[in-house]
Amino acid sequence: MDRVRTSNYRHLMLRFTLLLLLVQLTYYFTFGYVDIYESYSTIISSNIPRLNIKESQSPVEPPDLDHQRVLPLLAPSPLMPFTNVGVPKLSGKCPLNFSNVESIITTTAVDCWGPLAPYLANVVCCPQLDATINILIAQSSLSSGNLTINDMHAKYCLSDITQLLETQGSYNHLPEICAINPTNLTRTSCPLVDLRDIENTLNNSRVIESCKIIDPVKECGNKVCESAIMHAAVNMASKNYGVPDVIDDCKKIVVRWLARKLEPSDASKVLRGVSSCKINKVCPLVFPDMSNVSKECGKVINNQTTCCDALEHYFTQLQDQSFITNLQAISCASSLAASLQKANVTLNVYDICRVKLKDFSLQVGSQDSGCLFPSLPFDVTYDQTSGIDFRCDLNDNVAAPWPRSSSNPSRFTCSSNSTDLPALPKATSYQKGLQDNVFFISTLLMLAMFI
């Protein structure tokens, strides 16, 4: 939205703006002038995140970037270090071989970095954590011959995984925010978990050929890999159809079998690519009570300013929740509009109050800009130079779509001042470099510290 934020929100942004000015002035007087429009915001660290398994473990290096003109939120400065917090206290009762997937665990720790994990949970952290657990079990099957962890060991394994991640800086309540418990590692209801039985049941070549390399964009449209996984799961579940959720449980086993056939890094890309299709279809936001919006905007709007103020206040509640992707924002706009229509808000208040898709996501920086994430899977990155970094589109001004009618909320029309709805965000991957309207963000971490 283009309207003024509520007084509380303006106060928080003022504090952050003053912090921004202070840090930039400090940097100016310490290091001399720099063109901040040509530099990246960074968090400098003297410690490299790594597992305490092999002393030779190296940090995760970010992919090469096609560095284009970007606008940082803060000039480079020595801010918050990313450090190990100690040696993990492993149970000694988990059969998983963690040393086989050290780099995957390190990636997960950075994706689930402490202050940011609750805001990145839906988009980055939890999908990567789920992939990591499946890959760990898949790798252990190379020696165990089994694609599950038994009930006795499951709780120890989940605890050990959490310990390894926390000692690299991850959020200390990951199982809670990602809704993962020991049963996610156990046999569940699928009748086949032994590798010999699975090999005799699966159409090995179909699953491998369909999933060994996937294009996330094409996969979400054609569902080649997902269909192969589902077909295999149905065959495996045929011996136990009487149990609820048996097909879903067998899909989990097929995914682990597939991860066993691939290198861990390749398996992570495939699993994240398949899961991103599901993630982008659902709005992750919880919509609070909208009675005040209904009161001020319902039926005939008597005072447009009062209506938009009420809607503005409502959006500040949504913007406290999490980062979302462009495609999720479309789903959220649909869901909210349908709920507003049911609450007797019949006019297109998105158009009247100039609501944009970016208004549904967490707001970043003093510009009050919504941070929409790429719909394709990506990772937060860390190195000694750029610190903890992720990027999002702060300048995508696509108008939020309003349903044509309450009887058909799935059909949308764009307001006259909007551009075409994005099939994908403008910056789709690290490999394709940064676009002019993309911010390279690391300083949201400071926002978590100071407000």
Describe this structure in words.
The chain is mostly helical and 451 residues long. The chain has a domain at 98-279. The chain is built from 16 helices and 9 strands. It has helices spanning 7-31, 102-111, 117-144, 151-166, 174-177, 195-201, 204-211, 216-222, 224-237, 246-261, 264-279, 291-297, 304-318, 326-342, 349-352, 444-450; strands at residues 324-325, 363-364, 369-370, 372-373, 381-383, 387-393, 402-403, 412-413, 438-441. A 3-stranded antiparallel beta sheet has the order 5-6-9. Strand 2 (363-364) and strand 3 form a beta hairpin. Helix 12 (291-297) packs antiparallel against helix 13. The longest helix is centred in the N-terminal third of the chain and has 28 residues, at 117-144. It is globular and about 70 Å long. The two termini are 22 Å apart. The model is unreliable at 2-82 and 406-451 (pLDDT under 50).
Question: Would you summarize the structure shown here?
Answer:
The protein has 451 residues and is mainly α. Helices cover 45% and strands 6% of the residues. The protein has a domain at 98-279.
Task: Outline the secondary-structure elements.
Blueprint: H1 7-31, H2 102-111, H3 117-144, H4 151-166, H5 174-177, H6 195-201, H7 204-211, H8 216-222, H9 224-237, H10 246-261, H11 264-279, H12 291-297, H13 304-318, E1 324-325, H14 326-342, H15 349-352, E2 363-364, E3 369-370, E4 372-373, E5 381-383, E6 387-393, E7 402-403, E8 412-413, E9 438-441, H16 444-450
Parallel strand pairs: 1-4
Antiparallel strand pairs: 2-3, 5-6, 6-9, 7-8
